[in-house]
Amino acid sequence: MAVVSDRVFGITVLGRTLEHLGTQMYKRRDVALAELVANAWDAGATEVLISVPLADRYDAATSEVSVTDNGTGMSPDQVDDEYLVIGRNRRAEGQSAPKNRKVMGRKGVGKLAGFGLGRKMNVLTWQENTATSIELDGQKLKAEGGETKTLEIHGTVTDEVAHLPYPSGTRVVMTALKHKTPPDIEGLHQALARRFSRTVIGEMRIVINGAELQQPKIELSMRDPSSGERTDDLGDGNKVTWWAGFSKTVLSSELQGFTVLVNGKTAQAPPYFFGVEATASGQHGTKYLTGVIEADFLDDGVDDESDRISTDRQEIDWEDDSTRAFKIWGEALTRRLLRERASARGKAAEKRVLDNEGLANRLARLDPPSREKAKKFIQSLGSSETEEEKILPLADTIIQAFEYQQFHDYISELDAASDDPVQFAKAVSYMHGWRMLESRALLEVIKGRTEIVEKFFGMIVNNAAETAHTAGQDNLHDLVARYPWLLDPDWQVLAEEKTMTKQLREWGAADGRDRDDTRYDFLALQGDGQTVVIEIKRSAHAATLEDLHQLETYVNKLGMGKSNVTGAFITGEHYAMLDSTLESWKRRNDIQLLTWQQIHARTAKHYENYKAILEGDLDADGFSQRAKEVAMTREVLKKATAYRTRAERREGLGPQDNRFDQLEAHSAETIEPAPPVE
């Protein structure tokens, strides 16, 4: 007959420290689960089972998340003296992990990761025919007024262990879950596979809902080294082991960039490019770059002073002197990889053109200086992210520019643009699609857009109203609705001011629960298929946490209907919150905090890049959409207001360049086919 006894355990708390540590550091599911998996590793586990609710059965109030391992487990005394001691540094105490493993944990707070998932943690641990069970309730683990207090934790101890899955181990079950949306199981596989080294995954089987952890399947176009890994000396006595490669397709953000592993676990979360992504040659290749760097030297100490990794294992302290050589090495490596990829793509594009007999013969007939410059332009096409099937038609357009004397005045413009391969590819695409520029009407559109951009700037500077409070009042919302490209020339704005319920119904994802009549400001689509829900505030508005939480609610709600929804919050420079809180929001991958100044600068730069290329004096070939925009722009500038009447609102959003949802139709209507390539 089983023997069950009650036992009172103790835990010391300071104010609401435990609640804040668990909630603030481990907000993301993958980060919290990775920490619990790391605990299993430190316990000597060879298997860890993760159970998460399926999307169609998810209910935050009743669903559970559990992590079970076959590690050494804990005795009742170990639970009291070790597990319930927050901030215990087992390394400093000389305690190593079983199986001669390097200890991943250091700060003694990883056990709180479960509070990032749920408000309650049920811990069951067993060894040597003794099982101990306790429940930790985050709402109760606090002392009022910031006091230090030892709280009683009532648990049970029993010798009934026959029903448990392993001779020893630990199971942590999170309930009263915090996330409103169901987990993305495929995303968890990707995230956890990147957060642990192959050595760890080889020694400890990680299973999610019965399926063994799946390594991301990435088809690489380039890899360094071609197989295996390299070990480099950093020049300061430390070494790193690494590999990197470029995918043939754009990677998800979780797979982009480097992940830095220390003792088998993430120390710098992806995507990370050593800070060179904005300045490196070939920077547009960052969406394709992936790699792993193992730098165990970063965590070779035992005391707190030698610690160079953030508590949640998301970021390395790059300001520390001991990381300087690593940072310099990483910057140089990233720049080299991006440069080599751009060069290889350029050479491949040139070879593709030279392998085409018709284009090769036309190149050969050019005078030598023109031929070399044309090849340079073709290489620049390849260095951009131009699809392979577009290389030959665009190369045909480039060669045309050299073949006909009347186009030579554009060559100097192309030469200047070729320093930025992506902008160059866009310029050549426009020349190809418009048959060397549609008309001067197009120039008028661009000039009109630059004037609208300046009006936009004036409204920002003068703190224009977010919406119209009286008929005829100039306001940011109506200006953006008339000219959606103001937000981002690369976005397609799909809709404005729809309720959550209506949007979800349109997507066929209404859940039948209470209506939600809250409205977003705008909904946009990026070229990579990502949906962006946008909230705007006037430039002088001091944004509050309530504002940001409102956007977060929209993102979570709309995530029920689309798998890839992010948020963008646009306001001025002012935030009514603590700097640390603001910084934590800025680090989020699912929500962008943008300023009107940034939006204006990006849009203004976009049209300045094309203004010189668009100079020309060709007759128009019919251009109804552009003509409509020209007429509308004249009217807005004449009246000095973007206010829309009720009838104009019913007409919907104004014209915009990007229509990703109608790409084929758009191409057929606006782009004439290229001349056949012989």
TrEMBL record:
Cross-referenced InterPro entries: HATPase_C_sf (IPR036890), tRNA_endonuc-like_dom_sf (IPR011856)
Lineage summary: Bacteria, Bacillati, Actinomycetota, Actinomycetes, Micrococcales
GO MF, one annotated term: nucleic acid binding
Biased composition (Basic and acidic residues): 645-669
Residue span of region Disordered: 644-678
Positions of transmembrane segments: none
Protein name: ATP-binding protein
